[in-house]
Amino acid sequence: MSDTPGQTKLRTMHPAMKFALEMGPLVVFFIANARAGIYVATAAFMIATFAALAMMWLLARKIAVMPLVSAAVVLVFGTLTLWLQDDHFIKMKPTIVNALFGLALLGGLALKKPLLPYILGDVFVLTDRGWRELTIRWGVFFIVMAVVNEIVWRSVSTDTWVAFKTFGYLPLTLVFAMAQVPLMTRHSAEPAAGADPKE
Q1: Among 100, 98, 101, CA closest to 147
Q2: Which residues lie closer than 8 Å to 74 by C-beta, 6 or more apart?
Q3: Residue 152 domain-assigned (yes or no)
Q4: What is the role of the protein in this entry (predicted)?
Q5: Percent of the chain with pLDDT strictly greater than 90
Q6: Could you tell me which residues are beta bridge partners of residue 188?
Q7: Is 31 a member of any domain?
Q8: What is the DSSP letter of 48?
Q9: Residue 155 lies in domain
Q10: Which of 14-23, 36-45, 59-68, 164-173 has the least mean pLDDT?
Q11: Are the C-beta atoms of 156 and 97 separated by less than 8 Å?
Q12: Domain presence at residue 91
């Protein structure tokens, strides 16, 4: 059967491509800063970020919430950085993004409206306790990363901060994500729909 007219068919993006699209703008930022300084790097980072979003859409026909929020903050703080010629704004961008994610996750949990199942529910199926524990861990992680970014950019040179943002933040996030695999395995649940209760 053919697809319903007007319906967009979702595709699966290879994890390596997803990683490349997430890492690409950071590498552009690092190289541009080394060659031309923080303001040229900021402009290049903004362009690369939205180019990566466009590629995500072309390859998967969808864009996850987190890259969208991050891109919106990049647009606002990158524009302020270039307009006011003040690199404090682009340096605070990771703080704002991480704080937003952390507060949203922990706040949603406190209001008994956890957000993580809506973000990852089409990829993982966990028990309620599993979602709760995973939400707490990620919420705390994002808050910690917001604090770490504030400490780093306020205490080291711009070049060192750019290096940390490029080669520190994403690897730390990947390591933390891998560390959550045992929890997700322990609290995995069978999909409710289409399951045969006798099996």
Answers
A1: 98
A2: 45, 46, 49, 93
A3: yes
A4: Plays a role in cell envelope biogenesis, maintenance of cell envelope integrity and membrane homeostasis.
A5: 56
A6: 126
A7: no
A8: H
A9: 65-186
A10: 14-23
A11: no
A12: yes
